Amino acid sequence: QVQLVESGGGQVQPGGSLRLSCAASGFTFSNYAMTWYRQAQGLERELVAFIGTGGAATNYADSVKDRFTVSRDNAKNILYLQMNSLKPEDTAVYYCPRGFNYWGKGTLVTVSL
């Protein structure tokens, strides 16, 4: 069955960096475009980044553009999100769904002093 396991979250100070990973299994990872979403407490889920099947096509929410970079390793079935210059408003649970039907448990990112 489809499994998506996010990792790499934690607490970091403003201006810091984190690299999130998403291990995918149960489907042919290289056949699917992938996304990163986040959900802050009390708010709706927000699309953060998109990456095409080959990794060349990417797109970002305006709020993270020039700070976050999405990438993928199709040989290892892993999706990444490199997050730099983190801000308190980046605090959220981050998810790497496949489409709209398959979601992992997410990984919590907390940006605070």
How would you describe the overall organization of this protein?
The protein is mostly beta strands. Helix content is 0%, strand content 46%. The chain contains no helices and ten strands. The protein has strands spanning 3-7, 10-12, 18-25, 34-39, 46-51, 58-60, 68-73, 78-83, 92-95, 107-111. The strands form two sheets. It has a six-stranded mixed sheet, with no helix packed on it. A four-stranded antiparallel sheet has the order 1-3-8-7, with no helix packed on it. A hairpin with a 4-residue loop joins strand 7 (68-73) and strand 8. It is globular, with a radius of gyration of 13 Å. It starts with a strand and ends with a strand. The model has no long low-confidence stretch (mean pLDDT 97).
Looking at this protein, list some descriptive labels:
113 residues; mainly beta; four-stranded antiparallel beta sheet
